[in-house]
Amino acid sequence: MKYKILTLAAGLVAASSLSASAAIIDLVNVGDSANDGGAILTITAPGGTGSGSFGSFDRFGGNHSGLSQGMNTDLDKYLDNKPPAGPGQFTRDIQGSAVQVVDGFYLFRFDGGNPGNGLLTLQTIKLFVSGTQATSFAQLDAIRAGAPTWQTSNIYNVKNQSGNGIADMFLQIPQNLIGDSDYIYLYTESGGEPYADAGTYNEWAFLERTSTPPPPSVPDAGATMMLLGMGLVAVEGLRRKLSA
Fold first, then answer.
1. Which among 31, 40, 77, 162 would be 20 to 30 A from 134, CA to CA?
2. Domain span at residue 176?
3. How far apart are CA 22 and CA 15, in angstroms?
4. Structure confidence at residue 213 (pLDDT)
């Protein structure tokens, strides 16, 4: 019995130390960005969803003084998800084959519901992938209890840009973490300290895959000038060789 008590205490200390070591990062202004374990979180301009159609796959939380928990599923009333759930609804199962890949990343969008352009604390985001669809609460609980494919190592305070239906933040997940046949389960804890989940609801959406992928990113002016300069140097070098 003493061994079990000591083991539990050691586990609590380890968990407390992990929580204490997490950085708290404010993502407030358009363009604010953080790289967390290879994934990229970026604040976008209001309405800045980019080209393509975004499909909602998890509505959860809102009006909580404590933590809200959400994880997408076809099953109704799991955690703090908003009903109804299921195919064609705002909360549902999705597979990797449905999500567009842009520049080597799967692209997701987060929309917080706190009023008045307020901040919302995202305590954790965890990505789970499964080869089979979860068809019961017990299976969803087992997925959550397992090791995530990716998770945030920091706590993020995210600014609500302009009410529901407007993108606040993009989440880019590396392409190699998700297969086309994988079921994607995205778990989120929002609210708590310092910024409670006090709005209507929060929502995750994904950029829907199309038969024609978006065009590659256009280099900025600095990169373009550098490439142009390198080209001119190469041409001049060739001209001198030919005239020698």
1. 40
2. 21-229
3. 11
4. 54
Other CB atoms within a 10 A radius of the CB of residue 162 amount to 13
Report the pLDDT value the prediction gives residue 123, as an integer from 0 to 100: 96
Task: Tell me the three state secondary structure of residue 225.
Answer: helix
Position 56 scores a pLDDT of: 92
Residue 50: C-alpha distances to residues 163, 168, 205, 217 (Å): 18, 12, 13, 12
Has residue 235 been placed in a domain?
Answer: no
Q: Taking a C-beta distance cutoff of 8 angstroms, is the pair 159, 116 a contact? A: no
H or E stretch at 43: strand 39-43
| Per-residue pLDDT, 240 | 42
**How many H helices and E strands in the chain?**
3, 14
Domain membership of residue 63 (yes or no) is: yes
Q: In sequence order, which ranges of 45-196 are alpha helices (DSSP H)?
A: 137-145
Strand 155-159, strand 24-27: pairing: parallel
> What is the pLDDT at residue 216?
47
Residue 83 near residue 76 (C-beta atoms within 8 A): yes
Give dist(CA 159, CA 234) in Å, integer: 47
Which residue carries 């509505």 as its tokens? 59
Domains in the chain, number = 1
Regions in the chain scoring below 70 on pLDDT: 1-20, 46-53, 64-65, 116-117, 162-163, 211-244
